[in-house]
């Protein structure tokens, strides 16, 4: 049974593992090995890196006591992190996390959510009503890649005339 709970500092190491495996294994059908290694070069960040998820609204999914995924929303309404283990992809873990994130965004009054999504995430979000705005070519210190700028309006359209 899938359960959702708020992110806790003690979840960090396991969420780092989820991130690494989601990128290296789960996204392997969408990107080449060089891109995957650049995106997730190591299993866990160095201990001296601050835990950015503590400054975000973040939820963790579990099944049978095992962490299976996590999803986070920055204070400005930007969906930052969304990852699940490869073996649970397509089994509702990301959907449950997304539902929790969306409910939170509505509760705190975000009028619009934004994201810079991978191709894999673009598909997930498009099915949930997110609008594709543009593609950004990213050419930093690694291989070139493309990110999909997307948004979701949460504004109440008001009563219909």
Description:
By secondary structure, the chain is α+β, with helices and mostly antiparallel strands. It has a domain at 2-109: Gcn5-related N-acetyltransferase (GNAT) (Aminopeptidase, 3-Layer(aba) Sandwich), CATH 3.40.630. The protein is built from four helices and seven strands; from the N terminus they run βααβββαβαββ. The radius of gyration is 16 Å and the shape is globular.
Q: Biggest sheet: strands, sense, closure? A: 4 strands, antiparallel
The arrangement of helices and strands along the chain is: EHHEEEHEHEE
The average pLDDT score comes to 86
CATH topology of one domain: Aminopeptidase
- CATH superfamily descriptor of one domain: Gcn5-related N-acetyltransferase (GNAT)
Kindly report the spatial arrangement of strands forming the biggest sheet. 1-2-3-4
Supply Rg.
16 Å
Name the helicity range.
Answer: 25-40%
**Sheet/helix structural class:** alpha+beta
User: Can you tell me the residue ranges where pLDDT is under 50 for at least 5 consecutive residues?
Assistant: none
